[in-house]
């Protein structure tokens, strides 16, 4: 059962996001405009694990006026491979260079409205190379004990959907990368 797309018109566009109205027809013949959020690229995040700990950033999000822990993540630039974006974003946001990366999965976090895919990678540790390159990304970077993650989630200290999905997947499957130094 596929919807038929008859066309699309832009409502708003910026380098970060665009909104469109798409002329769609349902299999039963009903036709209407559906709003769609288009992203200029996918995003990638890293669950970096070493010594029973996970590398997280603590940050404030003005949109929801909330503060919490997140995995390092960000946009995949044009022409960039998602795994390279994961490496770059982790280094920029944390000051830690992730160890060997393994792709865990990718998914559409808001499939009924947005076209962005989020890629999740698992890193075997990380090497500290200095302070985060972008000081506006977070107020803290810490290695948090894996055993603390369920309590942080229950207490609402991890609210970001990208991070929740990645960390819950990690916890559920009991994944452990090859060991590496932190």
Plain-language structure description:
There is one protein chain. This protein has 182 residues and is α+β, with helices and mostly antiparallel strands. It folds into two domains: 35 residues; 131 residues, Nucleoside Triphosphate Pyrophosphohydrolase. It is built from three helices and twelve strands, in the order E-E-E-E-E-E-E-H-E-E-E-E-E-H-H. Strands 4, 5, 6, 7, 9, 10 and 12 form a seven-stranded mixed β-sheet that branches. A three-stranded antiparallel β-sheet has the order 1-2-3, with no helix packed on it. Strand 2 and strand 3 form a beta hairpin. The longest helix has 13 residues. It is elongated and about 55 Å long. The protein starts with a strand and ends in a 9-residue tail after the last helix. 25% of the residues are buried. The mean pLDDT is 93.
């Amino acid at each position: 059962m596929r919807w038929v797309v008859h066309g699309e018109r832009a409502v708003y566009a910026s380098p970060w996001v665009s909104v469109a109205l798409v002329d769609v027809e349902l299999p039963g013949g009903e036709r209407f405009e559906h709003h769609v959020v288009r992203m200029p690229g996918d995003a990638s995040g890293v669950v970096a694990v070493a010594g029973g700990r996970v590398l997280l950033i603590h940050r404030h999000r003005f949109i929801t006026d909330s503060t919490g822990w997140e995995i390092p993540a960000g946009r995949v630039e044009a022409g960039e491979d998602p795994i390279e974006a994961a490496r770059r974003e982790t280094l920029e946001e944390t000051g830690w260079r992730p160890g060997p990366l393994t792709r865990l999965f990718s998914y559409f976090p808001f499939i009924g409205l947005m076209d962005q895919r989020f890629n999740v990678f698992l890193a075997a540790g990380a090497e500290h190379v200095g302070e985060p390159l972008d000081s506006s990304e977070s107020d803290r970077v810490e290695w948090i004990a894996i055993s603390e993650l369920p309590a942080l989630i229950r207490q609402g200290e991890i609210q970001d959907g990208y991070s929740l999905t990645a960390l819950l997947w990690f916890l559920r499957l009991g994944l452990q990368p090859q060991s590496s130094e932190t």
